[in-house]
Design goal:
Length: about 325
């Protein structure tokens, strides 16, 4: 059987679903940048890319060399092609302006250039998460700098979302709003090959992912739910659950897209100004679109994440995503509280 490459899949989408040619080109360029990041990640100490930069990003987190390098790779790959009106990244304070010498386009790209930074130096899977929005109105044709407001659209407005995972295999998981496809990087050929045609999240699961060390800071509904999970067969849920926590959202979500599960990063009582750790625009929205497109669910405990109207670029949210039954259960506990 002939192999279907990412390029061929995108061209077929253009024919069958009217995917615009500029969106196709944009996805191709993002995927090419991810190939480059994958290469840098896999070199590790040989490429001199491990360790920290000695700087902090806008959220006060220490930047690793690979956070900064991946950010640069994505900016350089995407700034000249004429498909974008601007970009925003977890690693940059403000919206990135397309340099004046290049044409502008109709889309906005947001990304977490390297997710799971704490795992880089220990050789555990990391990834790149991205989301594509349309630039509202004619914002790309204006000469004024692009403001933050253009990006502040609910996740339902995403036209594409995906991630690359740099693990034992490098894979690209993508949705254009018509199901979820998985491509594996064939390193010898340098091409992304469609290997997972219709990714689905099972509705029920007996596996959950949460950083248990934060337990004392969680709110009552999460305490109740996780206690019930830990009670297993003898408790009200009547079954034994298994726990996994990789601490790279891409890797935890990848496991859930592969065999089901529930991922939780609850809101934390430590700093009321930060409702959760994960970022709405770079992490929660793209992952929620993928999970929903695969038949799963995603909420912040109270509402569907994709319905949240963002108020700032670097906004954080609580995240509960994965197999429908468990997401609905933990969300229900929040509503009862
Ligand atoms: P990033 O490396 O982009 O800052 O994101 C890390 C996130 C996410 O990948 C993961 O789920 C979570 O932080 C891990 O948090 P803990 O440190 O609480 O395990
Ligand atoms: Mn991240
Ligand atoms: Mn990151």
């Amino acid at each position: 059987m002939s192999r279907v490459s990412l390029s061929r899949y995108l061209i077929e989408q253009t024919r069958s679903h009217n995917t615009p040619a500029d969106l196709r080109f944009l996805i191709e360029v993002v995927a090419r940048a991810c190939k480059e990041i994958s290469h840098a990640v896999s070199k590790g100490a040989l490429g001199g890319v491990l360790g920290s930069m000695g700087t902090e990003n806008v959220q006060g987190e220490v930047q690793k060399k690979l956070d900064v390098l991946s950010n640069e790779i994505l900016l350089e790959a995407n700034e000249w092609g004429g498909t974008l009106a601007g970009m925003a990244s977890e690693e940059m304070d403000n919206a990135y302006q397309i340099p004046g010498q290049y044409p502008k386009g109709a889309y906005l790209l947001t990304f977490d250039p390297l997710d799971g930074s704490s795992n880089i130096d220990v050789n555990v899977s990391v990834g790149t998460i991205f989301s594509v929005l349309r630039c509202p109105g004619e914002c790309f044709s204006q000469n004024e700098p692009l403001g933050e407001e253009a990006f502040l659209q609910p996740g339902t407005k995403q036209v594409a979302a995906g991630y690359a995972i740099y693990g034992p295999q490098t894979m690209l998981i993508l949705t254009l709003g018509d199901g979820v496809k998985g491509f594996t990087l064939d390193r010898e050929m340098g091409s992304w090959v469609l290997t997972h045609d219709d990714i689905r999240v099972p509705e029920s699961t007996a596996e959950f992912a949460i950083n248990m060390s934060n337990q004392r800071h969680w709110e009552a509904p999460v305490q109740r739910y996780v206690n019930e999970l830990l009670e297993g067969k003898a408790g009200p849920l009547g079954k034994d659950y298994n726990m996994r926590w990789i601490a790279s959202m891409v890797a935890d979500v990848h496991r859930i897209l592969t065999r089901g599960g529930l991922f939780m990063y609850p809101r934390d009582s430590r700093d009321p100004s930060k409702p959760g750790k994960l970022r709405l625009m770079y992490e929660a929205n793209p992952m929620s679109m993928l999970i929903e497109q695969a038949g799963g669910a995603s909420t912040d405990g109270h509402q569907r994440i994709l319905d949240i109207q963002p108020t700032s670029l670097h906004q954080r949210v609580a995240v509960y995503l994965g197999s429908k039954e468990e997401v609905e259960r933990v969300t229900g506990y929040h509503h009862q509280a």
